């Protein structure tokens, strides 16, 4: 038998209930608020942008002649909203530059109204005993897939590096999907976020192993605004993708080896290096790169991809030693720092001929 109704309530409703002592956000079986400032800021930014947040689970019980609502799941979200409206914290500029540094009362009236009218999706339980409530709460926390590395990082960090990387991942997700760099399954598990993070790391700290992503998330976690070096890296990321897009349409990319994730990483870092970026291979040539050189790059990259197929598919024993070295690193698909640098050095040398 169904024990809940799906409803939605405005933030103004929650505020009214809280002010009348008709809202319990600290049930005994729930943890106390443990959210960081960044986590709180990110939630308020979600509301300010009018984007949805996960549903909240409430119970409703008649106490005397009034309904009292208890938050079964989502108490940290509701607590954060109430704290923001009370003026306890402001949004970080790294999340929302337009409204950063302002308490709720310092927002303009229209923005305040949008916040108060924001609707929170709710599953409302009724006629539920404490035992049933605990069972429901346990079930909520049962139906979850084991998080992969990137999903764990997403849950743990909310700083400027992570949010910048995620924005870039979302901006170019269609290209990497259509180009075959990532699959839909990979994107469903935050593959585009990991790829963007990995590429952004190369622009900020140089080519290195994918295992170092967390180090950069952590290093920039406490920044309240985007530092100049990260901001510059974001712009370089966009210009690099613009050049890659000019060289290969998604369909064209998909038909080459450059659609392989480790090859795409090499292509990206080579294009960034050619623009003057310090990605850790300053000993390599910087082939000219501008609109007039796009076709030259495309021709050299196509030839390199074709030669790779020729040498590997036919088991050709007469492979030049330098190309054999590239094949060795390319076939291993390793994300080790030195292997990544070696692949990039070879490609830059080939394009520079």
Q: What general form does the structure show?
A: elongated
Return the domain count.
Answer: 2
Distance between the termini: 73 Å
| Content of β-strand | 5-15%
Number of helices: 17
Q: What is the helical fraction, as a range of percent?
A: 40-55%
Number of strands: 5
What average pLDDT do the residues reach?
A: 91
Radius of gyration: 26 Å
Taking pLDDT < 50 over at least 5 consecutive residues as the criterion, the unreliable ranges are: none
Broad structural category = alpha/beta
Tell me about the biggest sheet? 5 strands, mixed
Q: Strands of the biggest beta sheet: in what spatial order?
A: 1-5-3-4-2
SSE order, one letter for each helix or strand: EHEHEEHHEHHHHHHHHHHHHH
Describe this structure as you would to a colleague.
The protein is α/β, with parallel strands linked by helices and 353 residues long. The chain folds into two domains: 4-140, no CATH class; 149-352, no CATH class. It has helices at residues 11-19, 37-48, 75-85, 109-117, 130-140, 149-156, 160-171, 173-178, 184-188, 191-205, 213-219, 228-247, 250-254, 261-274, 294-313, 321-332, 337-352; strands spanning 4-10, 23-24, 56-63, 66-73, 119-125. The protein has a five-stranded mixed β-sheet. The longest helix is centred in the last third of the chain and has 20 residues, at 228-247. The relative contact order is 0.09.
């Amino acid at each position: 038998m169904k024990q809940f109704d799906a409803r939605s309530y405005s933030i103004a409703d929650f505020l009214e209930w809280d002010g009348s002592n008709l809202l319990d956000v600290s049930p005994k079986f729930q943890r106390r608020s443990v959210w960081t400032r960044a986590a709180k800021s990110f939630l308020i930014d979600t509301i300010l942008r009018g984007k949805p947040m996960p549903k909240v689970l409430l119970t409703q019980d008649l106490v005397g002649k009034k309904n009292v609502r208890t938050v079964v799941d989502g108490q940290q979200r509701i607590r954060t909203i109430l704290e923001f409206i009370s003026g306890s914290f402001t949004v970080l500029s790294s999340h929302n530059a337009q409204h950063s540094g302002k308490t709720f009362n310092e927002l303009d009236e229209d923005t305040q109204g949008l916040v108060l009218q924001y609707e929170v999706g709710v599953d409302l339980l009724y006629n539920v005993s404490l035992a049933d409530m605990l069972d429901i709460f346990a079930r909520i926390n049962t139906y979850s897939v084991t998080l992969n590395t990137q999903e764990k990082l997403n849950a743990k960090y909310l700083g400027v590096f992570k949010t910048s990387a995620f924005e870039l991942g979302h901006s170019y997700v269609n290209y990497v999907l259509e180009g075959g760099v990532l699959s839909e399954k990979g994107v469903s598990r935050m593959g585009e976020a990991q790829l963007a993070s990995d590429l952004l790391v190369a622009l900020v700290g140089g080519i290195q192993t994918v295992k170092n992503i967390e180090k950069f998330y952590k290093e920039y976690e406490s920044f309240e605004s985007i530092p100049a070096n990260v901001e510059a890296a974001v712009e370089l990321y966009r210009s690099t993708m613009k050049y890659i897009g000019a060289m290969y349409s998604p369909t064209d990319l998909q038909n080459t080896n450059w659609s392989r994730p480790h090859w795409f990483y090499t292509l990206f870092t080579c294009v960034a290096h050619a623009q003057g970026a310090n990605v850790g291979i300053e000993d390599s040539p910087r082939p000219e790169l501008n609109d007039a050189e796009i076709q030259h790059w495309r021709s050299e990259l196509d030839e390199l991809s074709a030669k790779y197929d020729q040498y590997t598919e036919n088991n050709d024993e007469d492979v030049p030693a330098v190309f054999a070295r590239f094949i060795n690193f390319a076939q291993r698909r390793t994300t080790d720092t030195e292997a990544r640098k070696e692949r990039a050095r070879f490609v830059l040398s080939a394009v520079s001929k």
